[in-house]
Write a structure and sequence with these properties.
Number of strands: 13
Shape: elongated
Strand order of the largest sheet: 1-6-5-4-7-8-9
Distance between the termini: 29 Å
Number of helices: 11
Structural class: alpha/beta
Length: 369
């Protein structure tokens, strides 16, 4: 077994050790009352039953006999209520009068049953909840296929996820992996499945079922982390489409060598958009609109339909930007395009309609040269 060491990896490893969190799968949350609030509420109910029983006994203290001194005071009343409700029943304090015995039958016995229901019910509910969560987790694992794993749920990861959803991907087909428990809590609150842990570890990606994923999006905060995650993900899944983001352009070739099918340089892309906006604010606005799915203009990829076979790229109803033919990406004006073929895919600009999914997401692995 070998370890890849990159610049800054030792510091990253030490930081990971300091904030080590056991890999844990978090399913989407259901709207339920908080556990601490449930326990506090039931504890308050149990105390209420205990105090009520003690006060009832103390109010009829003359009807009770204490084998120790013959008298029942407030402390004795609470003592009797405690041992009675817990079904301990030492027998040192007993109801002696008929009224006290009737009160025990009609009032204190139902309170004892209620007290036991509160205690036993809390335990059973905890066990039932754990069993239910385990069942949900096992069912989720057995049904999950061809899903998308998003590593890193920061600004880049959220934007990628929103784009995927705008293109028609369902939330239950997205698994978020992030080392921050708070981030995963926010993701599960939005309906996503989350895995808390360091994605550079293979066991964390296995919990996210990365070996069965169709797409893996790597949007980590550090470039060296992105390289390690890409290496681990490609080792687990040879056929998945892996798209990674890096900050520095010089690290892009390293990501491709690690197994990424596509690499997006976030810093350079943002810089180019800034420069374009300076030269032409309108052009910058159009570009911003194109990369924001679901509003205004959308850049989509779709297959060629039968009616378009034999046409030129400019003869279709949509505004074609490029043609994907095999492993080649051809411009609309490239002479090599010629006539459109049924196996081609078109990258077009379309008008987005609110509430309508634009385009068909390309879920096939990218071909290698």
């Amino acid at each position: 077994m070998f370890h890849v060491k990159l610049p800054g990896h030792d510091a990253m490893a030490r930081q990971a050790d300091e904030h080590l969190v056991t890999a844990q799968v978090k399913l989407p949350k259901r709207v339920v009352e908080r556990p601490l609030r449930q326990v506090a509420r039931r504890l308050a109910m149990a105390l209420f039953v205990l105090i009520s029983t003690a006060l009832i006994v103390y109010a009829d203290r003359d009807g009770y006999n204490d084998n120790n001194d013959g008298k029942v005071d407030l402390l004795d009343a609470f003592y009797y209520a405690t041992v009675t409700l817990s079904t301990t029943g030492y027998g040192d304090i007993v109801p002696a009068s008929d009224i006290a015995r009737v009160v025990n039958i009609l009032v204190i016995t139902p309170l004892r049953v209620l007290f036991l229901i509160i205690l036993v019910g809390t335990t059973l509910e905890v066990l039932t909840e754990r069993t239910r969560e385990e069942f949900r987790l096992n069912r989720w694992r057995s049904q999950l296929r061809e899903h998308t794993v998003v590593v890193g749920f920061g600004t880049k990861g959220r934007s990628a996820m929103q784009t995927l959803i705008a293109k028609g991907l369902k939330t239950e087909q997205i698994v978020i992996v992030d080392p921050s428990a708070k981030v995963i809590e926010a993701a599960t609150a939005d309906g996503f499945v989350g895995v808390v842990g360091d994605a550079t570890r293979s066991d964390v990606l296995l919990r996210a079922e990365a070996q069965k994923a169709r797409q893996i999006v790597i949007a980590t905060q550090r470039d060296d982390t992105a390289v390690l995650v890409t290496l681990t993900a490609r080792q687990l899944n040879r056929g998945a489409k892996i798209v990674a983001a890096v900050r520095e352009e010089e690290n892009a070739p390293l990501l491709r060598q690690s197994g990424a099918d596509a690499v997006i340089t976030s810093a350079s892309a943002a810089g180019r958009l800034l420069g374009l906006s300076v030269l032409s604010p309108s052009a910058g606005t159009v570009m911003e609109d194109l990369i924001q799915q679901g509003s205004g203009l959308d850049l989509v990829e779709r297959p060629v339909i039968k009616a378009e076979v034999g046409m030129g790229a400019r003869e279709t109803e949509d505004l074609v930007v490029s043609v994907v033919r095999g492993h080649r990406l051809l411009g609309y004006d490239d002479p090599a395009v010629g006539k459109l073929q049924l196996t081609d895919r078109l990258i077009t600009i379309v008008r987005a309609t609110p509430g309508h999914v634009t385009g068909v997401p390309d879920l096939r692995p990218l071909p290698k040269d």
